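As the next step, I selected for study a record pairing a protein sequence with its backbone structure tokens, which the following lines show:
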Amino acid sequence: MKNPPPYKSAAIIGVFLTILAAGSIAGAAVVVNEFCYHPHPSNDTGLEWIELYNSDSTEQDLSGWDLYPSRSPHFVLPAGIKIGPQSFILIYLRRDGINTGAEIYEGTAGISSNMTNTRGSIALFSNSERDSIIDFVEYGDDSMTYEATAAAAGIWTRGVFLDTALCSNSLGLISDGSDSNRKADWKEFVRPTPGHTNQPYPVDIAVSSILVSPESILPEGEFTLSAEIVNMGLDTAYLPVIEVFEDRNGDSVRDAGEKLFASLSWDLLSDKRTALAQISGLAEGQYDLAVAVRCSSENYTANNYRSIRICAGSPVAINEFLYYPVSGAAEWLELYNRSAGPVNIKGWTVEDNTGVLHTIDHYDQFIQPGGYLILTSIDNQPLAGCLRLVPDGGLPSLNDDGDVLKLRDSRRVQDDMVQYDSDWGKSRGKALERVNQFLPTNASASWGLSLDPFGSTPGRQNSIYAENNCGNAEISAGPNPFSPDNDGHEDRTIFSYRLPWNQGVVNISVFDRMGRRVRSLLSNYRSVREGNYAWDGRDNDGRKCPMGIYVILLEAGEASGNGTIKAKATVALAGKL
């Protein structure tokens, strides 16, 4: 047989090198770094985990990557998942949770089995088509699915198996990211290090987790932040200092102007301990709260910081929605940022009465103060001077006769909710608009059909918008007088009140000049210090009240029962003669 011409050999070598280069570009710096497949003696469900590590100096986007833990189904990583340089991501199998920058939850839907305890494998692909395998490892004594694929790609040797680990132990690379596809690269960890380095330092303090309680935080309300601080090192850590602060720029350092909520000093830390901080006084808005720990004797600081994004109150309001469009037009809803700062809606969701969560965006997306965002079923509708987004999986279909709309933040805490029905207003092509963004969302008096000639006002002030411009009395009404004749001008009056406590229970009623109660607006309503409520001039039976002077009675009690108040105001209901 003759040798091929030189140019053909060069072409073959070139193709081979191109294939190798493509394999390295596809994310080969990301490896399976540690895993625990048998965490519990009797029930491993929800406790198994796999740790990935990025040994590169650049961030890697893992959106759409495919993980196969030797059982079906495959787990496709959600969009927007990124792993930083020399960083870890921890994947919890068959477990529900809120994805963060460091923890990813597979969920439980459609999964009926765990990783096997006697033999198994983990395969990692750079896409759901599984045409580019990135890493592979198997344990036990039998060849597993994708072993041949990994061997052909040069990332594993057929017939090589890691020894199985004892219950609650893990298998991990001896050195983070140093995987030369040999059994000798791995060892069994009696003390697993999920989310942390596999090489223990003499002193290594880590912020393991952050929680807030209660999950739903009221504006100016009090809540508790708890952080688990763990000594991952070999020696006792002395005189650690823990700071809890607002990290506005996300640089992991408390800078000038960033508020310090707590500073704790401990004598020593040998294992783990919980740091607690009582926080209050946050105005309505979104906040990035951070926990950072430092110790003069520490050898490794990459895991000394962790943050959590929370909302005080409901900074983003459902402000308008079109549920009964003309044929061929989109259904949509409008969001409005009523807080004083920008709100990042990355990871936020919207749902209807089916309870299926639709992620609005997997990437950073900000609504500026006083700004709008449209969620729509068709990407180029409606015409609006603001950003339009089609949620992941589409906008939930809005029922013509009534439905529920819920907006949740990235922690799945409800930000806003409205449950409408057709009695609120139903006209083909006309949107339901909110009278004022600070009125209670789930109240029919806060909504009305758009009076705009085009039937809606996406991305701009609502056509039925009304404002209370009265002073700082305990309860006031404005506009006063008002005329509920559906001409789009002063059709509702807004009652505004202020309590002497941060939280209270509020009752508001309307009486005519004879002292008869004509409308009960709020009953045992749990409120923050300030609130608003609209009255459409109708009684409890839905009938329009006659013209005249009406008395508004506010009765409120402190949330814990330490005091009550009463306040009155009058409002004039006018009309055309």
Notes: Residues 468-577 form a domain with the Immunoglobulin-like fold (CATH 2.60.40.4070). The two ends are 109 Å apart (CA to CA).
